[in-house]
Every structure is written in structure tokens, then in C-alpha cells.
Amino acid sequence: MMEQYYTHWLKHRTVLHGLLEEVGPQHVFFKPWSDGFALGDLAVHIASSTDMFLETIRNGQFVSLRTPREFQTMDEVREILDEFTQKSKRDFQELQTSNLEKEIDIFKFTAPGSYWLESMIDHEVHHKGQLFTYARMTGVQKVPFFKQLPPQAVNDAAE
């Protein structure tokens, strides 16, 4: 069960890395509207929120969002994303079935860890979809499929 969650999440996170590779350095602070997240901030929000969810599930109680280091460039955003991705991979490896069964309160909503793990993935997918729109608005022509394709599909597309 845990492997399925991990694989599902990683197929989305891998695409997020690929999408950010296509974004030009001049767009790190692009905002489609004045009150929206800047592109770099949204990418970092995805990564830090996933970290918060995994830490919460692993610890069995709410863990506040960790403030990531500041950035000025797209390369720094990519580095932060990579750092959080590596940490999230390690955190996933530490999760046990008991973590998914434990009831956890987050913002006065109580649900088992499995619910919060699914919510974590949904949150990431939601914001990644926004980043696809941001990327297109900045002129990115080549965007990846919304999640990593199975090897056979990649081979078929290349032929």
C-alpha cells in the first residue's frame, strides 16, 4: 500500500521537476495576478507543503510548515525543490501502515493518516496544474504530460 502512494506521488513530483526545467530564469517572480503566488513561490509552496504533510503523518500530530530558504533565481527554486524531494523520499521510506491508520487532527479536521496522505498528493497535483498554466503564460512551449508516463508509453511516443 505504501509503495503505491509513493509511486503515485513520485510520478507527479518527477513531472514538476521537468516542468520547472522549461521555465526561463526571468520568470521566477512571474505572477498572473497581483495577489497570486509568484511562480517560484508556488513551486516552493508545493515542496514545503508536501514536507509538512509527510512530517505530520510520520509524527502522528500536526507539524507546522517549515519556512524554506529564500531564493532569487529559478536555479535556486529548482535546488530547493530537489532538496525537499530528496527529504520527502526519505520520509516516505519511514512511513508505516500504523502511520496511515492513526487519526490526526489538522486545522480542526480529524482523519486517518491515509486521508492526509491522499490530500497531500491532491494538493500537489492541484498546484502543479496551476504551474502548468503559469508556464504556458510565460511562453513555455514544451510541457510534460501531467504525470510521468509508463516506460512503454514513452517508447511508443518516441517511435
UniProtKB/TrEMBL annotation:
InterPro entries: DinB (IPR007837), DinB/YfiT-like (IPR034660). The keyword NAD does not apply. Gene3D superfamilies: dinb family like domain. Pfam families: DinB (PF05163). It comes from the Bacteria. Transmembrane segments: none annotated. Keywords: Metal-binding. Belongs to the DinB family. This is DinB family protein.
